[in-house]
Amino acid sequence: MNDGVRTQDIIAGDVFFEILEPSALEYTYRLRPAKDFGGTFGVTYKSPQGKLVPAEPADACSTKFKNADELVGNIALVERGHCSFLTKAINVEAAGGAAIIVTEYDTEIDDFDYYIEMVHDNTDRDTDIPAGFLHGKNGIIIRQTLKKMNLPYAIVNIPVNLTFIQPHLINQPPWLPW
């Protein structure tokens, strides 16, 4: 079934990844990469078996992470708010993280259903790790599922090339149509 939508129209500069484990989260997810800071998914960071680790504390506004050892070489899943996107990325990089994915955490806010443009905070700082914004509902479900299953991380394949996959064949989360 093809409804006239092309995969290239869906991709539009976004980055995709898939969760390989746990099976309850085995879907393809969409990220909006940071506009003007950090590295690039697929160049600076790519992994067919990377770990997506929820940061503790979740806001990543400090370099003091309770789970710093788990962040080393991995992707930190952090929550939006309390400090700039760039500050979060710099803090994750300082802790040894290889990439950062920022997501909403509050289901009561108005922009829960939108992708946020992550921009530089106009300071003289920068980071080399890639950063992306994950749709809020995905982030909440990933965090809740990992917590419920008592898992410290999810195994991910990032980035995923969807160029030659028909849109209706993309294994997107059932709770969030693109």
TrEMBL record:
<dbReference type="InterPro" id="IPR003137">
    <property type="entry name" value="PA_domain"/>
</dbReference>
<dbReference type="Pfam" id="PF02225">
    <property type="entry name" value="PA"/>
</dbReference>
<feature type="domain" description="PA">
    <location>
        <begin position="49"/>
        <end position="139"/>
    </location>
</feature>
<keyword id="KW-0325">Glycoprotein</keyword>
<dbReference type="InterPro" id="IPR046450">
    <property type="entry name" value="PA_dom_sf"/>
</dbReference>
<keyword id="KW-0732">Signal</keyword>
<protein>
    <submittedName>
        <fullName>PA domain-containing protein</fullName>
    </submittedName>
</protein>
